[in-house]
Design brief:
Elements lengths: L11 H17 L6 E6 L2 E7 L2 H4 L6 H13 L8 E6 L3 H9 L4 E6 L24 E4 L3 H17 L1
Parallel strand pairs: 3-4, 4-5
Antiparallel strand pairs: 1-2, 1-3
Helix pairs in contact: 1-5
This protein binds zinc ion (ZN).
Amino acid sequence: MRPIKIIDRSQDERFMREALTLAAEGAVRGEVPVGAVLVQDGEIIGRGFNCPISTHDPSAHAEMVAIRAAALDLRNYRLPGSTLYVTLEPCSMCAGLIVHSRIARIVYGATEPKAGVVVSRGQFFAQEFLNHRVLVEGGLLAQECGAVLSAFFKARRSS
Ligand SMILES: [Zn+2]
């Protein structure tokens, strides 16, 4: 039997604020501002912001960038026991990646009514066929996470 790990939520807000800072970096570059950090044992092991336009890479979502960075750094294609903080509800691509990476928990901020697959467009992580269970928590700093996006789109419309 695997040992039961007690989830430490005391730092959740701090890590989500880190993800928000990354989202803002994306906005500066003209990318839709979404940020993510991956945390293991209380330490950030991967950072990313959405950047598909500037990198000519349709897979360069914040989650993908953060997970790739962590896996490469740790020289391990699996990231057990880690928690992913992302400012926006993940899409189907990233949700799939989260399962493949064996991430233990994800915490997201704002919901994404169009493409989010955690609660908005289905419940990806609840599917029976998945061989790995991910603990999902949403709505952390949701207002701030959503405001970064609204401000970005508002500025883009008026420019
Ligand atoms: Zn995605």
